[in-house]
Amino acid sequence: MGRLRDGRPEDQPPVLRTVRPGRAAPGAPGRRHLGGCRKYRDLEEYLLPQDVWQDKLAELSLGLPETFDAYWQERGARLRETLEDVSTGLSRKELIDVSATRGRIKVTPQKKLVPPQVEPLARQLSARVPRVKITDLVQQVAAWSGCADCFTDLRTGSTVDKRHHLLTALLAEGLNLGMTKMAEAVTDPDITARRLMYLGDWYLRDETYKAALAEVVNFQNTQPLAAYWGDGTTSSSDGQRFPVGGHGRKFGHLNAKYGREPGILFYTHVSDQYAPFHTKAITANAQYPTLSRGA
To answer: d(Cα 178, Cα 136) in Å, to the nearest integer?
Structure first.
């Protein structure tokens, strides 16, 4: 076996010949990166340059003391003062919904915020909303938002000629009914299980789902009614756990919150207009703050 000038084997694949000569990360000789690559670039390229960071320090300052001792000196005095006020209020029974009984502090549960007069009004409003079939609703949303055009053929990038076939396959996956049972439930003879499976294989993919969801969220953001809940610039996120079995059993041993049972989390981001604009499947032992920062 021959060798090149730098000592690497001559029969080494061209890809490895390109990757391995990359510069090593500072302080980590074994770590490599690719220049000009977005996924495998140097870690330092993700960070702000030092001169830019120094200029932004004043803008990003939280106004907190630099040391813990200085912080605790200020906060400790405020904490002691607050505890004295609480203790005085308890002894004089001046605190609202808080009392001390037999050496224990009791806080009265929060009362129902919605007054009882609202419930009849809610029922009246609900009665005025017409009942809509889910098939009609899906067709209306697709016509309003144009989300159906995001489901394109994996090979050609073209859209489906018969859109109601695509929406039927979409409902079959969304309802977890399956293509075969959905084909048996519809009356259109052209919608067969084979047809729905074909659409599911070539049109319903993760990237097309994300693109269609973005169109629906953007359409909702333009509606005046959505502005009553928010402007769409803030969001909250949380995970919903589902138990699983099989090879995922080992992951359950790593999680202290969910015990030994294996599971998977669907981490969903919801805007202030109640639009679930992003969902990510993660293992149950992943950390929420890390994902919320990188999602």
So the answer is: 20
